[in-house]
Amino acid sequence: MVLLRFAPSPTGALHLGGLRTALYNHLYARKLGGKWILRIEDTDSARYVPGSVDGIRSALEWAGLGYDHGPGKDGAHGPYFQSERLDLYHSYTRKLLDSGHAYRCFCSSDKLNSTREKLARTGSNVTYDKACLSLTEEEVARRVRAGEKSIVRLNVSGLDDRLPKRQTPSDVIFGILKDAHASLPTDPVLLKSDLFPTYHLASIVDDHEMGITHVLRGEEWLPSLPLHLDLYSCLNLSPPQFAHLPILLNPDGTKMSKRKGDVQVLDFMRRGWEPEALLNWLALAGWGVHHENGGTPDASPSRTSLQAPDSTTLMSLSELIDQFDLPSLTHRRNILDPLKLEYLNKHHLMRSWQTNEGIEIHAKRVSDSVKIAFPSR
Ligand code: GLU
Question: pLDDT tens across 61-98, in order?
Fold first, then answer.
């Protein structure tokens, strides 16, 4: 059975991009009779925004995207907050240290900054001089016993020799990524000095431990794919399949941002948009163009029904599930045109008014959006 996850960080409200990621996870899981998990990636306490988990959950509920496992729901894959899974990350860090794939670094942040600046002045794209890689085992043990703070880094040098099966990264939507390893930072940090994992370690450990079969996430994580695949290889684990979803753009080609209008799902809830129209709009913006670079064939069902709907085809959530085809998503950046949302919204409303049940649902939605917009009334 396929198992997916939507893994937002609780750093603020859910944006359209996050909703689109959750939606595609939902469509793919439901299409293949699988499930999806809501996992909260809260390992960066400095960026934590109180209330954001509730905000994410209520936006998903409003949109009708019900997760199978996650906060507030029992299930076999918890805990669902990464801050409650630290022992797991520590045990994987230990494995990587013991196998020599990772090492402790005791450099202070001042020293790291000055090393980085020095290296940059020489025109190098190396960001760390690997000074701590040459510490002897005894020296490391002595410094740990003395309570000196350290971080843990992946030893990237020589991975090609050490990992006979080092993979060339490939993505269901973006295809084969040539020379992707070249852009990796020098010996990326896996465990921070506060003993919290970085995103990279936590996400590969959780995807493995939770039994995730497919990772659908934003394009901004594509450069991290080689590192994630290296981590799986170092740990001798098989990775899930990856599909990165292209960045969303305004009609003028600029990146969506708060300054340019509504990007938070809450804005759309407050304004009383039809959730199904919003999902319809988001889903079709990246839909159905057969990408030329050839995605990796995956376990999806037959690709025979591939007459791509046009981006204003009226589709309910169950129709979207029915017609969803992951490898056919475009790798080009997706333009979200507000005029198309208006059109879809009007037609979804008209469709729902054709039934009594639809009128009741709509009346409830209007009263809910009044409550969201004016919470004190
Ligand atoms: N926590 C990451 C984010 O909020 C998710 C990355 C992932 O899905 O692996 O962008």
Answer: 999 999 999 999 977 899 999 999 999 999 999 999 99
If you measure from the C-alpha of residue 217 to the centroid of ligand 1, how many angstroms do you get, rounded to a whole number?
A: 7
- pTM of the complete model: 0.90
The crossing angle, in degrees rounded to 10, of helices 275-285 and 16-31 is: 80
Q: How far is the CA of 5 from the centre of ligand 1 (A)?
A: 10
Quote the Cα angle for 236-241-242, to 5°: 115
CATH number of 83-200: 3.90.800.10
Angle (nearest 5°) at CA 372 between 371 and 377 = 40
Write out the DSSP string of 34-53.
Answer: -EEEE-B----GGG--TTHH
Q: Is the CB of 43 under 6 A from ligand 1?
A: no
Instruction: Give the tens place of pLDDT for each residue, 171-182.
Output: 999 999 987 877
- Residue recorded with tokens 């209007």: 366
What tens digit of pLDDT does each residue of 47-66 get? Answer: 999 999 999 999 999 999 99
Is residue 203 within 6 Å of ligand 1 at its C-beta? yes
Six token digits for residue 189: 């940090």
Distance (Å, rounded) from C-alpha 193 to C-alpha 146?
15
Once rounded to an integer, what is the mean pLDDT over residues 353-360?
74
| 138 secondary structure, DSSP code | H
Q: What is the DSSP string of 345-359?
A: HHHHHHHHTTSHHHH
Ligand 1 centroid–CA 285 distance in Å is 21
Residues taking part in catalysis: 258
Residue ranges per structural domain of the chain: 83-200
Distance CA 42, CA 45 (A): 7
In whole angstroms, what is the distance from residue 353 CA to residue 362 CA? 8
Residue found by looking up tokens 């009334």 in the block: 377
User: Using omega within 30 degrees of 0 as the cis cutoff, is the peptide bond preceding 79 cis?
Assistant: yes
Structure tokens at 349: 């409303």
